[in-house]
Design goal:
The chain contains 19 helices and 17 strands. The chain has 601 residues and is of the alpha/beta class. It has 4 domains: 52 residues, Ubiquitin-like (UB roll) (Roll), CATH 3.10.20; 109 residues, Alpha-Beta Plaits (2-Layer Sandwich); 143 residues, Rossmann fold, CATH 3.40.50; 209 residues, 3-Layer(aba) Sandwich (Fe-only Hydrogenase (Larger Subunit), Chain L, domain 3), CATH 3.40.950.10. A hairpin with a 2-residue loop joins strand 1 and strand 2. The chain is globular, with a radius of gyration of 25 Å.
Length: 601
């Protein structure tokens, strides 16, 4: 531990703590634009400067570690003047179109300018007239608004290991650009949106599709149907002043009806459906591939496929593992297929008139709706063209804007229920929104599928938490792989953590050794969908933990906690699908993959 003073207040912090974080411990805010707790600090903005008592020398608080006996001054007239000048210089190279900016009212630069009372900038305005890049189906790049804080580059390169963004040029001509200065839609980008989630200004943001949704809601010829993802229910409340993790599920249902949606379903239901398909697929692969020695076949391990950014990454960087990828579609796409293929016929609505909207925590879901022709499976099954199974996907942030535009006071709405039969869900469905949740849900039902017995304690704690890679064994009590009753699992989240798991699998395969894992869950974003690229801004590990607790509390209070127990899931198979992974289920609920180039020509 290190003893120091900050503005005369004595405190003790761990060795290696930065001055910036030490100040937070005594409730002193040191302003910054480039710092983010998810990323290693690199002191690019210069706004967090402080000085040591008794010396004029200034240092940057984000990268300067505390030292024994240090006495730090964080605020005095000179420091404030320097910080104000740094903000003014940034503003001199930044457009003045705040009212038209998607970050208006939620912009870190705007907030700092207000804190410093900046009304005029004493420097000549210099803009580079850089065009907006609209080539990506999920996110938009506006390099003119870039303040060169570097967050997006560090996220893309170091957190996500995608390397789709970089800096080009120097000095005042410096700019953010996609790799090799290609259009962002032709780059290695996997659409995860973590660059947008970490950008402090409006330089990168999600593609806004709310106008298309409003048009559908106002079209009397259409029947608008909506689904909400698991993670939306524990994050939307933040946009209306509540704490992270507050569950708004039933008020969200009510708000969606107030917006004009005629039918409201819940993606948690199709998460249950995903578990039935993916869990059955896992059991089949394990049992058909098992030899006497316990070695598994080449399509083991089974790797989850719910995260579209991960799907995009796999097809670009690990296409040799396509045989290991679950063919099960994501819950979003399963729900879209069931709405147009099953529900529409059940209630007597022409599928062509159904306008299917999803509310997702993820920007990559926008791309996933049109990923390939398998996303038109309902029409293909019927021999007609119903359009895509999901017509449009919007983010949690977009839904919040729509609710505010409509003047809906969501916190004062009465609770409402989702519509049957694609609404009711189990606890297993709701934990899909957090890292380890898909694995835990799958284990709950796979145990039943293998043993025909219910799992005693359904809480599988080894896969919970924010550790980048989690490993465990599951003992089914009866032989599953050859003579072994145990399967080895791994859970990885935040794309930069994934390579270590996949490289172990690849190395074992290439050397003819037994696979280190039998089942692997992957989510592209840190913490899983609860901090997806379309969630409210400002995600930190503390916020992720609160959102996670919200989902697990929803799980714990559920009447059913295993997907196979959902009575409406049973009804779907009895009335329409037949059996999990059967012919009709495979036509509607499964997909295929292909190797993609890192750059699109």
């Amino acid at each position: 531990m290190v003893n120091l003073k900050i503005n005369g207040r004595a405190l003790q912090v761990e060795e290696g703590t930065s001055i910036l974080n030490a100040a937070h411990k005594v409730h002193i805010k040191i302003p910054s634009l480039c710092y983010n707790p998810d990323l290693p600090p690199w002191a690019s903005c210069g706004i967090c400067i402080v000085r040591m008592e008794g010396t004029p020398k200034m240092v940057r608080a984000c990268t300067t570690p505390v030292a024994e006996g240090m006495s730090v001054i964080t605020h005095d007239p000179e420091i404030i003047t320097v910080r104000r000048t740094a903000v003014e210089l940034i503003l001199s190279n930044h457009p003045n179109d705040c009212l038209q900016c998607p970050r208006n009212g939620n912009c870190e630069l705007q907030a700092l300018a207000a804190e410093f009372g900046i009304r005029e900038v004493p420097y000549r305005k210099v803009l580079n007239a850089l065009p907006i890049d609209n080539s990506n189906p999920a996110i938009v790049l506006n390099p003119e608004k870039c303040i060169r804080c570097g967050r997006c580059v560090k996220v893309c390169q170091e957190m996500q290991n995608v390397w789709a963004l970089e800096f080009l040029g120097r000095g005042i001509k410096g700019r953010i650009a996609s790799a090799a200065d290609t259009p962002l839609g032709e780059s290695p980008c996997i659409k995860c949106g973590q660059c947008a989630a970490h950008c402090p200004v409006g330089a990168i943001y999600e593609r806004d599709d709310t106008a298309k949704v409003w048009a559908a809601l106002q079209n009397p010829e259409l029947h608008p149907v909506v689904q909400i993802a698991p993670a939306v229910r524990v994050a939307l409340a933040e946009e209306f002043g509540l704490e992270p993790g507050a569950l708004l599920t039933k008020k969200i249902y009510a708000a969606l009806r107030h917006l004009g949606f005629k039918t409201v379903f819940d993606t948690n239901f199709s998460a249950d459906l995903t578990i039935m398909e993916e869990g059955t697929e896992l059991v089949k692969r394990l049992t058909r591939g098992a030899g006497k020695s316990g070695e598994s076949s080449s399509d083991i391990p089974l790797i989850t496929s719910c995260c579209p950014a991960w799907v995009d990454y796999m097809e670009k960087y690990y296409a040799d593992m396509i045989p290991n990828f679950s063919t099960a579609k994501s819950p979003q796409q399963m729900m879209g297929a069931m709405i147009k293929a099953y529900w529409a016929a059940k209630v007597g609505i022409e599928p062509e008139k159904v306008y299917s909207v999803s509310v997702m925590p993820c920007t990559a879901k926008k791309w996933e709706t049109k990923r390939n022709d398998d996303m038109k499976s309902a029409g293909r099954l019927a021999g007609r063209d119903f359009g895509y199974d999901v017509d449009i996907a919007i983010t949690t942030r977009e839904l919040a804007r729509m609710i505010k535009q409509a003047g809906i006071e969501i916190l004062n709405l009465d609770d409402e229920e989702a519509d049957n039969p694609l609404g009711p869900y189990t606890g297993a469905g709701t934990i899909f929104g957090v890292t380890g949740g898909v694995m835990e849900a799958a284990i709950r039902s796979a145990y039943f599928l293998v043993t025909k017995k219910e799992l005693g304690d359904v809480n599988f704690l080894p896969v919970r938490g924010l550790e980048g890679v989690k490993e465990a064994e599951v003992d089914f009590g009866i032989p599953v792989i050859g003579s072994s009753s145990k399967i080895r699992i791994a859970v990885a989240h935040q794309m930069g953590n994934i390579a270590a798991v996949l490289d172990r699998i690849r190395a074992a395969r290439d050397t003819g050794k037994e696979t280190p894992y039998h089942f692997v869950e992957v989510m592209a974003c840190r913490g899983g969908c609860i901090s997806g690229g379309g969630q409210p801004y400002g995600s930190t590990d503390a916020i992720r933990s609160r959102r996670t607790r919200g989902l697990y509390s929803d799980d714990e209070k559920s009447q059913y906690r295993c997907s196979h127990q959902n009575p409406f899931i049973k009804q779907i198979y009895d009335e329409f699908l037949g059996e999990p992974t059967g012919h009709k289920a495979h036509e509607l609920l499964h997909t295929k993959y292909e190797e993609l180039p890192l750059y699109v020509k």
